[in-house]
């Protein structure tokens, strides 16, 4: 061991000896990072900008897909659309004559007709009922007094069944 | 690493707390909150000792030590028990010191402007490290060279342990240590020149 090594060991141990008596402070707790900051990649920068663009793109794509689906099917409820299509497929199958195979042409004719009808219905003032009897539950922009159910004659929802007595219930009872 | 530390501690009776910290290898469970707290208690002073020789002053070293444990805590569940936990912590600490030195150069430029016309602030007289020529010379070395010297001559690490802490191949460590000692002699001569001359 040469002089510089000896001096290093001696001096470092001498100088750093007081560290051994230093009280150990409480550990600093990590700063909580919000989910938005995580998404943005910390304080910003290229990574954050990229993450934000990807997120915004995904949101825009999802919104566009929803609009296209609603315009095509005439409804926002996928279960109603699939139920209607199932019914039509069954109808096509039933219409098949003996010895005839394939319902492709029948289904594609219905789909073509459905697409043009749905785009017509998306215009204001048209009925909210999709073609081929697919109930959408949307009434569309029916002018006041020209459609819908008159007040007091509606069926109401399940929650209200048997409750609508027409009598006011006193408060507190 | 722990065996090395134990041997060094047994040979020296001047480091009571460090010797207390250098018990036989401790077992830590990655991701365990309690184990991380134990790791913090066991290694805080050793990490602080390293950082005091690498960064500007004691307050900065304490801040960097906390930053080291914050970063370690964030990656605690990814630490692999087969790797030396202290080498892992030192690697984080050295990166924190490198980062701090980089920012320090920017801060110094601003401080020079603020200090214009005022007397220079005196160092804390109780801080032995800041009064030591050798420590001042070590601080002037490149961070990884300075860290290699401290890990070898204060912590008693082997070349393999220093390699793990610095993230370099083991073969690089010996040449880096030799270069660091040579550079230290030059810097030390420069630091001492005004006193002697």
Fold blueprint:
The complex is a heterodimer of chains A (173) and B (197).
Chain A: H1 3-16, H2 35-39, H3 45-73, H4 78-95, H5 104-121
Chain B: H1 2-11, H2 16-21, H3 33-54, H4 58-74, H5 85-115, H6 128-131, H7 133-140, H8 143-153, H9 159-166, H10 170-196
Helix pairs in contact in B: 3-4, 3-5, 4-5, 5-9, 7-10, 8-10, 9-10
Structure description:
The complex is a heterodimer of chains A (173) and B (197). Chain A has 173 residues and is mostly helical. Chain A is built from five helices and no strands. The longest helix of chain A is centred in the middle third of the chain and has 29 residues, at 45-73. Chain B starts with a helix and ends with a helix. Chain B is built from ten helices and no strands. In chain B, 73% of the residues lie in helices and 0% in strands. By secondary structure, chain B is mostly helical. Residues 1-20 of chain B have low confidence and may be disordered.
């Amino acid at each position: 061991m040469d002089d510089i090594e000896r001096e290093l060991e001696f001096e470092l141990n001498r100088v750093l000896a007081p560290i051994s008596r230093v009280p150990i402070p409480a550990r600093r707790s990590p700063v909580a990072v919000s989910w938005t900051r995580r998404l943005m990649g910390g304080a910003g920068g290229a990574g954050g900008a990229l993450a934000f663009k990807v997120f915004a793109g995904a949101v825009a794509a999802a919104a566009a897909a929803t609009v296209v689906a609603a315009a095509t099917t005439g409804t926002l409820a996928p279960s109603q659309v699939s139920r209607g299509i199932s019914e039509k497929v069954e109808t096509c199958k039933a219409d098949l004559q003996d010895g005839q195979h394939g319902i492709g042409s029948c289904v594609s004719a219905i789909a073509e007709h459905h697409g043009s009808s749905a785009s017509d219905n998306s215009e204001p003032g048209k009925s909210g009922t999709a073609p081929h009897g697919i109930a959408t539950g949307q009434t569309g922009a029916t002018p006041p007094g020209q459609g819908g159910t008159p007040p007091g004659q509606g069926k109401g929802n399940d929650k209200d069944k048997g409750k609508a007595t027409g009598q006011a219930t006193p408060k507190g009872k | 690493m722990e065996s090395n530390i134990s041997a060094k501690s047994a040979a020296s009776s001047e480091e009571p707390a460090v010797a207390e910290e250098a018990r036989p290898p401790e077992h830590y469970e990655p991701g365990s909150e309690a184990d991380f707290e134990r790791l913090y208690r066991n290694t805080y002073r050793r990490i602080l000792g390293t950082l005091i020789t690498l960064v500007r002053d004691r307050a900065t070293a304490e801040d960097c030590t906390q930053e080291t444990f914050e970063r370690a805590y964030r990656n605690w569940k990814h630490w692999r028990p087969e790797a030396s936990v202290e080498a892992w912590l030192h690697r984080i600490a050295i990166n924190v010191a490198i980062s701090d030195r980089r920012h320090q150069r920017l801060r110094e430029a601003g401080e020079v402007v603020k200090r214009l016309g005022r007397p220079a602030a005196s160092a804390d007289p109780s801080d032995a490290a800041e009064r030591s020529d050798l420590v001042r010379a070590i601080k002037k070395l490149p961070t990884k060279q300075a860290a290699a010297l401290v890990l070898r001559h204060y912590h008693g690490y082997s070349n393999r342990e220093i390699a793990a802490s610095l993230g370099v191949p083991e073969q690089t460590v010996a040449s880096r240590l030799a270069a660091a000692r040579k550079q230290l002699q030059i810097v030390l001569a420069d630091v001492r020149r005004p006193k002697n001359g």
